Amino acid sequence: MDPGSAEPQTAKPPAKKGPSKRMLNVLSVLVGLATFAVGLAWMIYAELPIFAIPLVVCVPVIAAVAFRNCWD
Q1: Which intervals of the chain are annotated as region Disordered (predicted)?
Q2: Is 71 within 8 Å of 18 (Cβ atoms)?
Q3: Is 14 inside a domain boundary?
Q4: Domain of 69?
Q5: Each residue of 4-57: pLDDT tens digit?
Q6: How many CB atoms lie within 10 A of CB 9?
Q7: What is d(CA 44, CA 48) in angstroms, rounded to the nearest whole number?
Q8: Is residue 13 part of a domain?
């Protein structure tokens, strides 16, 4: 047999990708909202001062982006 005429190579099935873009967007929003709710509840419960508001607003964005980057 000729090495060039060996058995045809079978195509590998494509590797399973992560979730779709739409699902990632929805999950990122849910993670951000959940983090915001926890931060807001903590702020109300602990009676934190007014300067804690930027922290409560920024942390959910960071959490959602970090979650989203797990698949990017």
Answers
A1: 1-20
A2: yes
A3: no
A4: 31-72
A5: 566 666 767 676 677 888 988 899 999 999 999 998 898 888 887 888 888 888
A6: 6
A7: 7
A8: no
